[in-house]
Amino acid sequence: MKAIQITAPSEMKVVDIEKPELKPGEVLVKIKYVGFCGSDLNTFLGRNPMVNLPVIPGHEVGGVIEAIGEDVPESLKPGMSVTVNPYTNCGKCASCRNSKVNACEHNETLGVQRNGAMCEYIALPWSKIIPASQIPPRDCTLIEPMSVGFHAVSRAQVTDIDIVMVIGCGMIGMGAIVRSALRGATVIAVDLDDEKLELAKRVGAHHTINSMTENVHERLTKITEGFGPDVVIEAVGSPATYVMAVNEVGFTGRVVCIGYAKSEVSFQTKYFVQKELDIRGSRNALPADFRAVIRYMEQGTCPKDELISKVTKPETARQAMEEWAAAPGKVFRILVEFD
């Protein structure tokens, strides 16, 4: 079967691999679409230290069930539209012991620590199959990245009395904006791109700030009447946005970090103490986060077409990745179509 493989930095090609054999307890999924995410871009650029090349990328999946193995629940049926939970959990580490399997110490994500789903078929344990029968396979690719943003909002314990600032309006940031708005919070979206900020308004942001052209602190002071946001969710992963999160969050506020900064970050640690901050990491997502995204998407208000920047074929995937690398700020998601 056909698959896409990243063989070395800036090298991507279509290869032929064996179609997986279905084992007991597994489901065979026919892949229709797979999304390229930021980790795939970093792998392509040689900036992902967790990857061992060559690797088949891809963990944002939209497909249909092709076949069912033995000992699989009857609720999973051939032809059903699905996405997948791309993470593993060992069941033995501290995170798993504490029922936080999303942060398993030994997690292996599809397309990162193990070969991913950017191929025609994939076989996975039935417990990793997430039914989404009311959502077309193309749109199922948006579920996993949005669930990461949803999980960050859960980590922040957002309520309807909170003012939440989300830094970064990519796919994961959009998920955080959506979930915060669904919980009734007042949401402030911060980004460098006006088009992304306009879309952030459509999915629930009440205020937007272009940090390239506006003074973020002055705008926040006005919006929050000088108190600062109750919650800041960092969804960029740069030293500047990490510092912004700590500096701008209100006293006794919560800072939730999703993005990985690629270099060391210097903080005024006095703010940690003076503000008595809760600073929390947020990794991957839990099954409940996937279900919440599916419910949101079933409501029909998600601007799915705007969130999908480009659909390409396996043979032109490398070109699409090169275009994304040249203008990363203009892309939400690039999908590869295998159908």
UniProtKB/TrEMBL annotation:
Protein name, as recorded: Sorbitol dehydrogenase
GO MF term list: oxidoreductase activity; zinc ion binding
The keyword Oxidoreductase belongs to this UniProt entry's keyword annotation: yes
Cofactor: Zn(2+)
Keywords: Metal-binding, Oxidoreductase, Zinc
Family to which the UniProt record says this protein belongs: Belongs to the zinc-containing alcohol dehydrogenase family.
UniProt domain Alcohol dehydrogenase-like C-terminal: residue ranges: 172-297
InterPro entries, alphabetized: ADH-like_C (IPR013149), ADH-like_N (IPR013154), ADH_Zn_CS (IPR002328), GroES-like_sf (IPR011032), NAD(P)-bd_dom_sf (IPR036291), Zn_alcohol_dh (IPR050129)
Domain of life: Bacteria
Domain (Alcohol dehydrogenase-like N-terminal) ranges: 23-132
Protein's organism: Phocaeicola sartorii
SUPFAM superfamilies listed in its UniProt record: GroES-like, NAD(P)-binding Rossmann-fold domains
